[in-house]
Please model this.
Amino acid sequence: MTKICRHFGDCGGCSLFENSYEREILLRQARARDILAGTFEDWQSPVDLQHELSNRPPRHFRNRVLYPIQAHPRRGLTAGLYRRGTHELVEIESCETQDPNLTHLAQIALQLARDMEIQAWDEKSGQGFLRAFDLRVMESTGEALFTVVTTGGLWDASAEFAGQLAARARTIERPNGRHPFKLVGVLRNLNDDKGNRVLGRRYVPLLGRDYQLDRVGRPLPRAKRDRMGVTPPLWFRVSAGSFYQSHKKADPLLYRPIFDELLSRAAQSDLAKRIRGGRVVDAYAGVGSFALRASRAGAGRVEVIEENPRAMKDAVENFRRNGYADIASFKLGRTAESLRGLEPGPLLLILDPPRAGLMEEGIQAVLALKPQYILYVSCHVPSLAEDTAALIDQGPWEIQTLHGADLFPRTQHLEIITLLGPK
Model:
């Protein structure tokens, strides 16, 4: 076998590069089916997987890079991904899955930190300063954010670091040439936790903006859109620290199939007809990725719940920017508590929880809310299986549709989407 990636086998980022993409798809489908069969005894159906329809496997699809940093005996610093099964870093010089400009920018930042002789934080001793780099780029605009993660305290050289990074980043050009790579903001994230959690809660802007913009949809003139029957694009403001899907093609792989196909197939299109004017609750809303698409699909009332204040600020702005602020309400706080404070009986409840799932508190809050339909999205199949089994066992729902989205090529991970509806 030809080694496709120079780091494969050492770097823990990918696990399935030794397989063809076709074989990889079959392996992920089989794994998801086996997990579901372990929870639902009669589950035999294959998991229909939405993936890139191409003769070649996807490359450079990740729009976010998070590199921990460690001291290096010869180079001073190293940054990259953990070697499989260890906390030893593999310095990434090239990557088949990351946006190449992010890989380049991370190398620039690492060399700059070496030039400035910044000391790495040591996980064992709890001493040091520099902990990680966090980078994200938007495919539709070319806008990039760079976050340098450090311990707390004054950093006299912060302005120099940000200015030098911005200057060196101007040498980066996007390979496709459609959108210039633009570093629109440099931030500092402060993390004094003693454990191995990479990101802290506090962000301090050092240069430029603390957010970037993404456009979903074709930017056509209104008259042409109307003639072609094309919906207007959605604009998303995404701050540093706000969750956003890390696959550049998340819209055609995840969101579009849900609203164009999955909901329209549910209960002989009953849900698709009723969502126009219906009440929708998005319980882990982030910046509004699902909630705004539900609004565009015709929802009459959308209730947005989010625990992260930065993401909630983005969601409020995104509803305003896209013209749906008049149908939306917002609740900042813990999801289970916020759900219990809502009026029961929404048409649709959207759940996209963390990997751990809903937990017992969340399941009870969902049962008390009594939604007519539940759209559950998860990157962790065991959590989804456990939660949906509990909801089906204790509530009036059954699985109506289930499919996957290949948001994590070259790994064992899979995004699963299931719709629960009345039995």
